[in-house]
Write a structure and sequence with these properties.
single chain, alpha/beta, 8 helices, 7 strands, globular, Rossmann-like_a/b/a_fold, UspA
Length: 233
């Protein structure tokens, strides 16, 4: 006999919150099992800034929860993923890292230095940090900007390992039928899919792709074992 739909909804919701041990089988890098991994790496954080209440006794607080890494940019998909994560994934004892990946300019005259480009990138995503602090005032939030000439997906996976992330959240665009055919063909040929697919299948921690279903509410969630699982807002 198969499990009722309500069983899987509760199981997935629990895993996102880092709940009981029964949810650890959801993915290889379950949200609950990743707390231990976060405590080993929390001292090696590369930060732009954090809440003032994280100073002083912040070290012990940082090691008590997970590090939830959310990939951000200026797109609506990124903002939707951030909003979902703050509502359904992040808890007060967790730490949030907003990761913004930029490409190194190549083959053209560049007037800006890397420091200037990083400063501009911080300014672009800083409103998202303010949004986090508004929604989760007790959660320590930081911005990490990485400039790279490598593939974005590879950079995100490497940075999540370096930062000791327990959960990785990414926004996802709506797939067209033509795109699905191309992606399946590329996957069969061993070429891999896009950035989101690469992160889901190569991340050490639990990687979650989030797409807002419609204006009526609800999100489509994709992990290594669940594809386009619909959760109400």
């Amino acid at each position: 006999m198969g499990k009722p739909a309500g069983y899987w909804v509760n199981k997935i919701r629990t895993s996102f919150k880092g709940g009981s041990s029964s949810s650890k089988s959801l993915d290889e890098g379950s949200a609950s099992g990743s707390r231990k991994n976060d405590s080993k790496h929390s001292k090696n954080q590369k930060t732009e800034g954090s809440n003032k209440n994280g100073e002083g006794g912040g070290a012990s607080q940082a090691e008590s929860g997970r590090k939830v890494m959310i990939v951000v940019d200026t797109t609506s998909q990124s903002k939707n993923a951030l909003q979902w994560a703050l509502t359904h994934c992040v808890q007060d004892e967790d730490n949030v890292t907003l990761l913004h990946v930029t490409k190194t300019p190549i083959g053209q005259a560049v007037d800006e230095t890397q420091r200037e480009r990083n400063s501009r990138a911080h300014e672009q995503v800083h409103p998202l940090k303010n949004f986090c602090q508004l929604k989760k005032p007790n959660v320590k939030t930081e911005i990490v900007v990485v400039e790279t000439a490598e593939e974005k997906g590879k950079t995100i996976v490497e940075e999540s390992r370096k930062q000791g992330a327990g959960v990785l959240v990414l926004g996802q665009r709506k797939r067209t039928s033509k795109w699905r055919v191309i992606w399946k063909w590329r996957a069969k040929g061993g070429m891999g899919g896009g950035v989101v697919e690469y992160c889901i299948h190569n991340s050490d921690c639990m990687a979650i792709a989030v797409r807002k279903k419609s204006n009526n509410g609800g999100y489509l969630i994709t992990t290594k074992r669940h594809k386009d699982f619909w959760l109400l807002a």
